[in-house]
From TrEMBL, chains A, B:
<feature type="binding site">
    <location>
        <position position="89"/>
    </location>
    <ligand>
        <name>Zn(2+)</name>
    </ligand>
</feature>
<protein>
    <recommendedName>
        <fullName>Carbonic anhydrase</fullName>
        <ecNumber>4.2.1.1</ecNumber>
    </recommendedName>
</protein>
<keyword id="KW-0479">Metal-binding</keyword>
<comment type="function">
    <text>Reversible hydration of carbon dioxide.</text>
</comment>
<dbReference type="GO" id="GO:0008270">
    <property type="term" value="F:zinc ion binding"/>
</dbReference>
<keyword id="KW-0862">Zinc</keyword>
<keyword id="KW-0456">Lyase</keyword>
<feature type="binding site">
    <location>
        <position position="37"/>
    </location>
    <ligand>
        <name>Zn(2+)</name>
    </ligand>
</feature>
<dbReference type="GO" id="GO:0004089">
    <property type="term" value="F:carbonate dehydratase activity"/>
</dbReference>
<dbReference type="Pfam" id="PF00484">
    <property type="entry name" value="Pro_CA"/>
</dbReference>
<feature type="binding site">
    <location>
        <position position="92"/>
    </location>
    <ligand>
        <name>Zn(2+)</name>
    </ligand>
</feature>
<dbReference type="InterPro" id="IPR036874">
    <property type="entry name" value="Carbonic_anhydrase_sf"/>
</dbReference>
<comment type="similarity">
    <text>Belongs to the beta-class carbonic anhydrase family.</text>
</comment>
<dbReference type="InterPro" id="IPR001765">
    <property type="entry name" value="Carbonic_anhydrase"/>
</dbReference>
<feature type="binding site">
    <location>
        <position position="39"/>
    </location>
    <ligand>
        <name>Zn(2+)</name>
    </ligand>
</feature>
């Protein structure tokens, strides 16, 4: 067992020993979803004020709304959420490369078989060059897609990894 | 401003007031990634023992490895993570429906335009009928894809929403 796996087990022992929230229902109590980045420096529960059971939390590289669409539709249509809070962040890795760079890196690092699988799966890494424009573009995408009802409020925010502050963009 | 948006602002004020982690680097300090579900009842940081800055946390409906592949490749190839911890959970919404049910529901609820967009985007909701088999299948997918190096340890776990415990499956 790796050190990381041992850490999961010991954390689980500690967490379960004082756990009192086994009664929470499947649908989020406050009927909203938060979409943010996978970045290690973000703790959505504390930074965005999410109590256990309140909201779905979707996280991917860059907080991409296109990439999250499957989860968003399930959250809304099957589990009743009615509002979307989208949070990208300063210092995001997605600001640091272009898609072609990542594709080239995969080929160099993992070999031609991996590069071929990337092509077959039509994977786009979805980087973005400007943070606030990317927040605006993703909010516009969510307002534009027919898969999100028009009446769903969608707000776009930036979390500052330097200060711990989350500010509204759109 | 909605009550949910006000809650983000007040939580941010509280969080930023005592924030001391502005020095953390972009690459995860412990070089691993956790893939888990968007479910509102999961707090990955506490339940799985993730300190701020330690690990990428990817979350989507059902903790789907296929759906997370873009983020996983970025995490590993661009940001240096070298281990994957995959955690699905008891009581998951993905156990409660089949893809055709969700597709039908989208058409009924959002109209034919939404159903057409679903087809154009080739969205599969990726539900699964059995929890532990789904954990095994996703671990096998990650071990099988050429986009994840063979030497990356991949472990599969189940988080019990009733007890707060996380147990290893594979």
């Amino acid at each position: 067992m790796s050190a990381i796996q041992k850490n999961v087990e010991s954390a689980s022992d500690r967490y379960a020993a004082t756990f009192t929230q086994g009664h929470l229902a499947l649908p989020p109590a406050k009927k909203y979803l938060v979409l943010t980045c996978m970045d290690a420096r973000i703790d959505p529960a504390s930074a965005f004020g999410i109590e256990l059971g309140d909201a779905h939390v979707i996280r991917n590289a860059g907080a991409s709304a296109v990439d999250a669409l499957r989860s968003i539709v399930i959250s809304q249509q099957l589990l009743g959420t009615r509002e979307i809070v989208l949070v990208k962040h300063t210092g995001c890795g997605m600001l640091t490369f272009e898609n072609r760079d990542a594709v080239a890196l995969v080929g160099e690092s993992l070999g031609p078989g991996a590069a071929e699988e990337l092509r077959q799966r039509k994977l786009d890494f979805l980087p973005f060059p400007e943070l606030e424009k990317a927040v605006q573009a993703d909010v516009e995408f969510l307002k534009g897609t027919r898969l999100v009802p028009d009446e769903v409020p969608v707000s776009g925010w930036v979390y500052e990894v330097e200060s711990g502050r989350t500010r509204r963009v759109v």
